[in-house]
Structures are given as structure tokens and as C-alpha cells.
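Continuing from the previous page of notes. For each protein in this section, the sequence appears first, followed by its C-alpha cells. Read the first protein now.
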Amino acid sequence: MKRFGFVFLMLSGLFFSAGTLVGKDPALDSIGQMRVKLIYGTDGDASVAGEIAKKLSEEDQKALGKIKSIQFKSYRLLGQDESAILRGYENWASPLEPSTEILVSFQPVKRVGKKKLEVLLAYWQGKRKIFSFDPTMSVGKTLYMVGPKWRNGRLILALTMEKLEVEKK
């Protein structure tokens, strides 16, 4: 019986120390921050977006006004989310919380200089991938993507890489 207790003690010690022997997963390191906004653009009555819709910032309205393919008379912010960019995993943002009906996934592919990152982006609606592509994003610059038609207007995604950590050598 003493022998069983000793073996059990040794095995449990090995089991509980296994996490420290293996070490931390470097793929879980946060290398940056991504902000995702869901915007509604329409030439009609913007109040059809509902009570969750808020006035869009002047900065975003000016930027959208410069893009010919996204010209609308009025814009509303439906929601936003900010998520860490993990080094080796697919990351998710849910700009229409608490709903998970609209999601954006992004995964780092490679660094392009100090302040740029190539990412694999995907837009999900109703658990279906609507589209994906792999842009190179710059810190502080917003990428606007025109989404599907919605309530006599369009959904627009605005993605901004807020920060990108300096690469450790």
C-alpha cells in the first residue's frame, strides 16, 4: 500500500508540473489590437436601423465620404468590438454584441515591416462565411469593406489595427 501511495504521489507531481515543463504557447502571445466597427449606410431613412444605432463619428463620416463606392446620405454606427491579435491563432470580433449573427475573423499571416501586418480576414453572417481576403493592414489606418444589403442600405465594416507590438528577436 505504501508503494501505491508513493507511485501515486510521484505521478500526480509529474502531472501537475507538466505545464511548467512544456512552457507557454508562443502562439497565444498578443501581438496587437484590432477594432471592428459595423456601420449602416443608407440614402433613405436611417432610423430603420433601430434604437441600437448611434451617430457615426465625424472622422469616419469624412473618410467614408472620400470613398466613391460607399457614398450614402447618412451613416449609423451599429456596434463595435476590440479584440487582441494573437500570434498564431484565428481571432474573432463580434461588432453587434450580444448577437453573434455578424462576426469577423482575422489571423496574422506575416509581418510586412514594423507597422504592417498581412492578415487573413473573413466576414461571417449567420454562421456562414460570406467572403474572405488577405489585405496588408497598417497601424492606425482603417480598412472599409462594403457588406451585404440591409434595410434599404448597406452594412459596412471598418477595421483598424490599433497597435502592433514590436517583433521580438
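Done with the first. The second protein uses the same format. Note its length before scrolling.
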Amino acid sequence: MKFSLNPEKTSKKGQKILPLILVFILLTFITGCSNKKDVENYTANMTTFVSNVEKLSVSINAIDPQSDSATTDLLFYLDYMDQTFSQMADVKPPKGYESVSDISRSAATSMRNAVQLYHEVYEAETYDEEKEAQARASYNYAFECLAQISDILQSGQ
């Protein structure tokens, strides 16, 4: 079976975006939201989300594509990535940042789609290059949504 997910390309993008998201979340919420408890809860949840995604990205990058367990390992980490994005989308943003909610749901939906497609690609008897490209595009779009969230939080909406 062909192992063609390029985690270095997608994860480097994610690794550049994730620390920025964390910084912008912390700075934005520390300096300007009205409901301090909601802001603190949201910040804690987003910090956990960013940390989990960073760990998953590192784990995906560490997979040896030549290993017998490469496909199983990749799908395991992607399943966890899907779960992490879904949990992030369930967190209600504080007042003034409601637009983040729609983008979070879009990111989670895109990640879910990517993971389902990756499962179809790597569990099939024959490799489907087009389906793998669709999976990669959905995966990348989920991270683009995170960049949008970062922009919103940075600008104060």
C-alpha cells in the first residue's frame, strides 16, 4: 500500500499556525473581553486544544512510512485529531467572538471529512490517489480555519 500523506508539509503549516493561535487567544482575552470567567474557560479550552493538536502533529511527523504499522499509526492519530477538533468546535466562544463558532464547526467538519477519506484510502485494497488528494485538501482546510480563528481573535473580531 502506498503511504503518501505528507505530514511534514501539513504539520509544518500547522506548527507555524498553532503557536500563533495560542498567543493571540491569550493576549486577546487577557486584554479585552467583558466576561472574565467565560474568557478564562475559553482560553483554557483553546490552550488544551492547541497543545493536543501540536502533540498529534509531532506524532504524525514521527511515523516511519516504511514501518509495518505506519498506516495503523497514522489512522489512529488522525482519529484522535478528529476527536480533538470536534471537542474544540463544541466549546462556546465568549460574547463578542461568536463568529469563531461557525469557523470552529467548519474546521471540525473538514477534519472529520479528511479522516473519513483517509480511512477509505488506507483501508481499501487499491489505492485511490484522487480520494487521498481530497483527504489532504480537507485536512489542510481545517488548519486554514484555525488561521482564520487566529485572525479574528487577533483583531478583536
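What the second structure shows: The two ends are 45 Å apart (CA to CA). Residues 7-155 form one domain. We return to this in next week's lecture.
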